[in-house]
Amino acid sequence: MKKLGLIGGLSWSSTARYYDLINRAVQRELGGLHSATLLIDSLDFAEVARCTSSNDWDCAAGHMIGAAKSLEAAGAEALMICANSLHKVASQIESSIGIPVINIIDEIGAKLKADKIKAVALVGTSNVMMDRDYRQKLVQTGGVSLLPADAELAGRIDRMVYDELAAGKITRDAERYMKSELTDIAKEEVQAVVLACTELELIVDVHANVLPIYDSTIIHAAAGARFILNG
């Protein structure tokens, strides 16, 4: 098996989900007592969030590059960033190391294209939903059109993620809010929803919605498992 490095802690609750999904995929494929060959550098999310909240992406990149170099030195043969928003600095990270970064946007786009999905709603924090670079890259890689960004929804998701979900706190109010929003989105002219926040799966049942839900965590983790198994 190949050795995969995860830059995690962004937040710890979603990193735990990555660890679970990747290990289950490897065990399912190989059987027995097999588990995934992983290295994890779990960052202090408070430090990284301090950078992103002030829109200081060079600061965020500094934390991420340090983790990437540590993982490469420890033997990782590829890296994954366990967060959507931090993919804003993915190219800076990749250019600082000698191993590939498995990009979450590329993987989502490839899945949408394979499923012949043409119109989607992108749902995540404001650093994703409102980010022109993320949206353009998804349009290019997936060959899709995107529903216009909803600033009010993005702001509410920010509060849920940073005040609750990143600390592992799950509330019925948050679950009800997301169910209502996804029901409203289903009335728009879209074929699917991209859940582009690695914490949102904690409060969204991806299998119980009117529209298909493309969960970025599940898609990205599957790509990580494929790398471990096949390189």
Automatic annotation (TrEMBL):
- Listed GO molecular functions? amino-acid racemase activity
Q: Which family does it belong to?
A: Belongs to the aspartate/glutamate racemases family.
Gene source species = Sphingobium nicotianae
Any idea of its EC number? 5.1.1.-
- Enumerate the UniProt keywords alphabetically: Isomerase
Q: Pfam families under this entry?
A: Asp_Glu_race
Q: Which InterPro entries match?
A: Asp/Glu/hydantoin_racemase, Asp/Glu_race, Asp_race
Q: Which Gene3D superfamilies match?
A: 3.40.50.1860
Protein name per UniProt: Amino acid racemase
